[in-house]
Amino acid sequence: MANIIGLTGGIASGKSTVSSMLKSKGFTIIDADIAARKVVEKGEQAYTKIIEAFGRTILHENGSIDRKKLGEIVFNDEKKRQLLNGIIHPEIRACMLREKEDAVKKGKQTVILDIPLLFENKLEWMVDRTILVYVDDHIQLERLMLRNHFSEQEAKSRIQAQMPLIKKRALADKVINNNGSMTNTLKQLEQIIHEWNLKP
Ligand SMILES: CC(C)(COP(=O)(O)OP(=O)(O)OC[C@H]1O[C@@H](n2cnc3c(N)ncnc32)[C@H](O)[C@@H]1O)[C@@H](O)C(=O)NCCC(=O)NCCS
Ligand SMILES: Nc1ncnc2c1ncn2[C@@H]1O[C@H](COP(=O)(O)OP(=O)(O)OP(=O)(O)O)[C@@H](O)[C@H]1O
Hints:
Order of helices and strands: EHEHHHHEEHHHEH
Helix content: 40-55%
CATH class: Alpha Beta
Strand order of the largest sheet: 2-3-1-4-5
Number of strands: 5
Radius of gyration: 17 Å
Bound molecules: dephospho coenzyme A, adenosine-5'-triphosphate
CATH architecture: 3-Layer(aba) Sandwich
Shape: globular
CATH topology: Rossmann fold
């Protein structure tokens, strides 16, 4: 039986950083943000539904979805965000479950599902155990502004679209505190791998 681990956190809390560490140890990662990009490629079902719902003004000239434009709309309007979520989330889940099954069939002993909205969307059923990558609010805000070149307002509207990390802490099986150095984060991750006896 493979171990299915849910890796979650908040925007810019450090999930990709932790998932890179896991990848370099040979673990298989299935990333919801990557699935979200695949399922909206030109010609996919969700692509057509998004145009029907949001109009052609959210497209680049080449017909692909302008993520910056769509992001500005949905992170400033909860109803529109829910409209997008309703279109895209079922497709993301189906895509991730297919990839997970493929990995299990290939004999992987552990499969990591990196899902930012795992707790918001009550997706605990998809995984056996959960790891939360946590940071304090002010560090999350700083790192998000720095990484995405967002204004404070832009960063806050994205953070506020998610369940506060402090609430997620209470729901996770393990918490990695990513306030400190990457080395410190790696140490905490290695402790969990050891404790849960995870093998790629
Ligand atoms: C709105 C979109 C086009 C913005 O694209 P952009 O390239 O700027 O951001 P990206 O997709 O890399 O997401 C970055 C982070 O934003 C957060 N986020 C994205 N979508 C949402 C959402 N609907 N609600 C809350 N947080 C979200 C996540 O923490 C994610 O890791 C895109 O995020 C999207 O299609 N979102 C809907 C799908 C979704 O919920 N994805 C999250 C993973 S399930
Ligand atoms: N321990 C750390 N010390 C300093 N900077 C860090 C640390 N961990 C992550 N970062 C930086 O913070 C930013 C956010 O980290 P990362 O991209 O891993 O978060 P994420 O949770 O995957 O974000 P998102 O879900 O929004 O893509 C990145 O620029 C990353 O390099």
